[in-house]
Amino acid sequence: MYNVHIKERCSYIGTKLVNSVIKAVKILEIIGRSKPLGISEIGRELEIPKSSTHNLLQTLESEGFVERNEDTNKYNLGTRLIELGYRAQNDLAICRIAKPYLNGINQATDETVHLTLLDNDEVLYVDCVESKRRLRTYSVIGIRAPLYCTAVGKAIMAELPEALIKHIINSKGLAKLTDSTVIDEKSLLRDLSDTRTRGYSIDNKEHEDHLVCIGAVIRDAEGKAFASISVSGPSDRMTEKRVVNIGDLVKNAAGEISRKIGYRI
Asked: Measured between alpha carbons, how far is 215 from 113 in angstroms, rounded to an integer?
């Protein structure tokens, strides 16, 4: 009987610990997608008491996962996450394999080069080599972006089954982010068809004004599209001839990376 009570208590404690971990993770997610937040705001979103929110935030702060602004008593993400994110980035095989190619493209173009992964029907930026020019695209590592209006996203999207493409369109929508964003499904499908024919995608000021990006898909050993690379630069520098030249460059580099991973045509 005594052993039964011990087991029940351990199970109860284990459940409480798991719940606390889940809440702590959710706090990091809430702060990560918002401006700095206070205890009350975080507690309301999580629907937990202010005292519980305070205890969780104190623990996260003591470990460096969040930082409190003493003037406003609001919380930002902490530097410990940068350290862990950097380690996670280095542990990703795709980052190690792709890095020399990102560097090579950067040296050849002197434009910013990105590497992204397909994640939950979006692209996640996982690595970047920035241009040295004064007017340039800056690193967006850790940021997510839509598939339909980014070069990295369209490069992947073009290789997905049509049923999945339409599912993503229906579930995510086609929001107009700039005057050039393609928000018509038929036009987008034609664009994706052109991407497959060319072997590279083009974001012509569709995600950000005055920015042109050229992307190409990376495939895994089974041939599935799971990542992509892109070159980004101000539209004034991205002439039609230069887009074609860069397109061939990223297409060839993406193909080499795919082969390094194990893809065979």
From this structure: 9
